[in-house]
Write a structure and sequence with these properties.
It is a single chain. The two termini are about 45 Å apart. About 45% of the residues lie in helices and about 5% in strands. β1 and β2 form a beta hairpin. The chain binds benzoyl coenzyme A (BYC).
Length: about 475
């Protein structure tokens, strides 16, 4: 059974850390490195206290506590969801066997790699977002940014715990490397592409939390199925926190669209830039960018890596247990996006195991579409004929079947020259970026909000929008 979190310990945890002195000491020696990373690579805006949620328990009720805390004193802890002693492996070659409490030697390298890749994204996002505090549109948004940041920090702790507890010396080394690599660094960049991109403004931040954090949701969902029980339980709890990150993205874009629509109606024009808003066309371009780089995070449409992970029981499918098949997929096929023999954007049938990245991406895409429908409803209710649209899966891809070709957002193949001529109409160009950045003036007064975004409908934890979410020096 899981115990509730012990906050008297240096590292709050519900994994009985005090019973394993060696592990405890190893993590306590990683802790100051984490804190110095946070000081040098974390949020740059000086603050006194922030109204933050801290995880205190993993049970269904009352898992979090809210209060004003200095960010440096945030209690980053280690929390695993409760253990189900009867849990059995739900898929792959070991289907039906008891879940593993230790790492089987033959899968050690692959499991470690998956955990390192997952762990690498968490601090990367904090690094990407570090300067956003200086231009927050309201204290409410500032608080949400910091909430996301501290929880990404906790998610790093979650992966570092697994590396230290189950992967010996290699794991400890990898835990060190997670603080050494940095987003966008020339010498030691983060592992996955999207985590080396900039998040220089709040429109990008909302797009990132909508599209990129959502990849996190789906990847964590597959790791929650893992036969390696500690990983499964860790991811289950991370998903709980992740929901808020997605909320920040969804409602953030809602509020940008809402304000744009208000300005369009008020001035009877689409050209809202001169009126201090973000034109729909720019919102579309930011969406095109963040969606396409997030699609790259799923890996190739066909992948032997993912087939091996699944067969070994390391990484399952989204909602694995609800799927109505044999959960082994050795003789099934699946249609995946591909470039056809005549060079067109089409589909091909491949062995189901090889197509599992595409299977997960499909789930992700349909979830992304829900947001787009939501934003289009705002347009529709305001009587506007314009609509936002997810670009084609072939658009702006650097990984997978379409990485070697260029395509328009509508999925029409174009030459490299054509792409170079037109990409500024599809992706944020210098003018768009300059405009969006020009709007990023901080509004740090209680109850006030920037003019390019609508206020939220509700505050956090039952507090009003004009609550003192952040105390600035
Ligand atoms: N960039 O077999 P392939 C989150 C590499 S986000 C650079 O097609 P595979 C979060 C790949 O490693 C979720 N390299 O792909 C969000 C492989 O290299 P090796 C993070 C890439 O392995 C917001 C080679 O290309 N978690 O939590 O089937 C804020 C061939 O690749 C990329 C995970 O991703 C890329 N985009 O799948 C905070 C889960 N894509 O092995 C947090 C763990 C592929 O030949 N990771 N490559 O040297 C995985 O499950 C898999 O590693 C991937 C790739 C899905 C990423």
């Amino acid at each position: 059974m899981t115990t509730s979190a012990d906050y008297t310990e240096k590292i709050p945890n519900n994994v009985s850390l005090h019973e394993d002195r060696r592990l405890q000491r190893a993590l306590e020696s990683w802790q100051p490195n984490f804190l110095s990373w946070w000081e040098s690579m974390g949020p740059t805006l000086p603050t006194q206290e922030v109204y933050l949620r801290t995880a205190v328990n993993v049970g269904r009720e009352g898992w979090a506590h809210f209060g004003h805390v200095p960010m440096r004193d945030y209690r980053w802890g280690i929390f695993l969801a409760e253990r189900d002693r009867d849990r059995r492996i739900a898929f792959g070659a070991h289907k039906g066997e008891p879940a593993w409490q230790k790492v089987p030697g033959e899968y050690r390298a692959d499991l470690q790699r998956l955990i390192v890749i997952q762990g690498d994204t968490e601090p990367a996002s904090v690094e990407q977002q570090r300067n956003l505090g200086a231009t927050a549109p309201s204290l409410y948004d500032l608080r949400n940014l910091f909430q996301v940041n501290v929880e990404e920090g906790r998610h790093l702790w979650a992966m570092v715990y697994l590396l230290h507890a189950y992967f010996g010396r290699d794991g400890r080394e990898e835990a060190g490397e997670l603080l050494h690599r940095n987003s966008g660094s020339e010498d030691a960049p983060r592992i996955l592409g999207a985590f080396n991109e900039e998040t220089p403004d709040w429109l990008s931040f909302f797009m990132f939390t909508y599209f990129t954090d959502r990849d996190g949701k789906y990847q964590l969902g597959t790791l929650k199925e893992s036969a390696f029980d500690p990983l499964s339980r860790t991811c289950e709890f991370m998903l709980k926190e992740e929901a808020h990150h997605m909320f920040v993205g969804t409602t953030g874009i809602d509020r940008v669209v809402e304000r744009t629509v208000q300005l369009m109606a008020e001035h009877d024009t689409d050209e809202v830039a001169v009126h201090g808003g973000i034109p729909l066309e720019m919102i579309q371009k930011y969406m095109n960018f963040h969606y396409s780089v997030s699609l790259d995070l799923f890996g190739g449409e066909t992948s032997t890596n993912v087939a091996n992970y699944f067969t070994a029981g390391l990484k399952g499918r989204w909602s694995e247990e609800r799927r109505k098949d044999d959960h082994q997929l050795t003789s099934d096929g699946i249609w995946v996006d591909s470039v056809t023999e005549d060079g067109e954007i089409g589909q091909a049938e491949v062995a189901a195991l090889l197509g599992l990245n595409a299977d997960l991406r499909r789930e992700y895409i349909s979830d992304c579409q829900n947001g787009v429908n939501r934003w289009n409803r705002i347009l529709e209710e305001a009587g506007m004929p314009q609509r936002l649209k997810l670009p084609s899966v072939a658009f702006n891809r650097k990984v997978g079947a379409f990485s070697g070709i260029e395509a328009t957002p509508d999925g029409k193949r174009v030459s490299v020259e054509e792409w170079q001529r037109q990409q500024g109409d599809w992706l944020p160009n210098a003018v768009d970026k300059t405009h969006v950045r020009s709007l990023m003036q901080p509004v740090h007064q209680q109850g006030k909000i920037a003019a390019w975004i609508a206020p939220p409908r509700q505050g956090i934890n039952g507090k009003p929008f004009d609550y003192d979410y952040v105390h600035l020096p």
